Amino acid sequence: MLNFLQKQTIYRYNLQTMKLKWGISFLFIISILAFLTFWNYNNRVYDWDMPGYLGCMYTSEFPNSPDKVRIITYEEIKKRLLQNIMLMLLA
Question: 54, 56, 57, 61 - which has most CB atoms within 10 Å?
């Protein structure tokens, strides 16, 4: 049978290892989340909402000329589309 001091030593050892394991798990989860966030940000795709996003951006720059905004928006989409196609072909 274990005496009181031996039980306290075992308890402290288990508590320390548990804190270490939780700390490592926490750092692992945070590093995975940071990596996925960064990777997702770099590989973001402007899909169906791209015209609206660019239109809002250019409307704030040119508030009184909607035709100019429309032309610039679709020229920007064509430019980004060609860049993406070139990147896919080169990869």
Answer: 54
Q: Which of 85, 56, 86, 87 is nearest to 73 (CA)?
A: 56
Q: Which residue has the tokens 């973001």?
A: 44
CB 48 within 8 A of CB 75: no
Token code pair at residue 39: 């990777």
Q: Which residue has the tokens 């995975």?
A: 32
Report the C-alpha gap between 45 and 24 in whole angstroms. 33
Model-level pTM greater than 0.90? no
State the DSSP code for 64: T
* Per-residue pLDDT tens digits for 57-70: 888 899 999 899 88
Helices and strands, counts by H and E, the chain: 3, 0
